[in-house]
Input
Amino acid sequence: MSTHRALSCQRWTVAVVFLWIVWFHGVFQLVSVARPVGFFNAGLLVQFVNPLVLCAILIVPGDKRFLIPRDPFQFLLLAAALVAAGIGIGNAAEGNVREYLSHLINALIGYTMYSLGRSLPVPVFEGRRQLWTVRTVLACSALSIAALHYLDSLGYIGRFAAEGYSLLLPLAHGVGSSAIVTLASLGLVGLSNKRGAYLMVAVVLVLAWLLRGPRIGLLTKLGAAAALIALLLVSLLSGTASTLVQRAGEHHFVDRTIALFEARSLEDLDAASSGRIVEMRAAVAPLDPLNLMVGAGFGYSYPMTYDEGVEVLHNTHFSPLTIALRHGLPFALFLYAFIAYWLLISAIEARRTRWTVAQTIPIFYLAGASVYSLTAYVVYVDLLFLFCLGHTVALTVESRRARLSARVSESFA
Output
């Protein structure tokens, strides 16, 4: 089957993916405004919508053979899900049935998204569909951040933080094609007050600069650099990046970042990291060495003690640890090593053969998402994460095949 025929056979499936992007990175951000004020836990919608996406992918017309494992990593994803499902039966028996099913479904969706991306050796992030998706995500993000700032100014939010992660796709699109989209994405990320989002932006900009193609224009480079410098200056001069107009506060991301380097004890480090150290220690405390190696399975929970009381949690903000809790430390380490390997190989290939904008978008997205995943659990929640991993692998393999084929043809010419 030709590469373009492969995309044609999956056009309806890819359309489902783009609809999900509009939902998760766009509409969901608007709905999430209700969460900080205690009106509605929008996160429950993700657990409801993601299974519908899996059903839609299975139902819509198209070639479903991409679900048959051929890639060794597909077999690994399936094996990891199978083992975690078996081990997690005990967790479900203890009452964590909803979490067990949620983790199982997310693992199956993750396998499906990686397999779909792996089956598409031609870029999908292009054309009018991509352009309107980026515009929709930008518009929804701007409205949600503006609404959160307004609620914060009224005192309804105790600690401000907007979802800057939703701007990763517009940023990955903009750095190769549009200075306006790049500047808009940077500005909105700057207002999010999320250190993970700032690291995400820095990685994408540096990677885009290093690749030097798809022909990143001078205006885009200068605009991105100016916006980044302006963001840092405003954040340093203002009391906090979260309330640029309203008031100074103790949650200034620069102060907390500096505190990370000045920490002299675990208590200092935990305070500077917003309680992440205590969270990680609480997550691994119930585990024995065997659990650390093979995982505690789907539905694993641990008690987290706060001043207000004890809460039962199932994830941590540090994605590698959350994956290790369910699938074991070896799988978590291999997953991130696998991502790093293909990011390196694809970046080298993209620079060597001057990939188009659409080809580099999954690289930028995967790089930014991987960094952000160190501060929030997104690997199996954001369906684009594993889709872009599979898509990056497919594009890189196809590019190398075409380059080697051309070299062989030249040698016989």
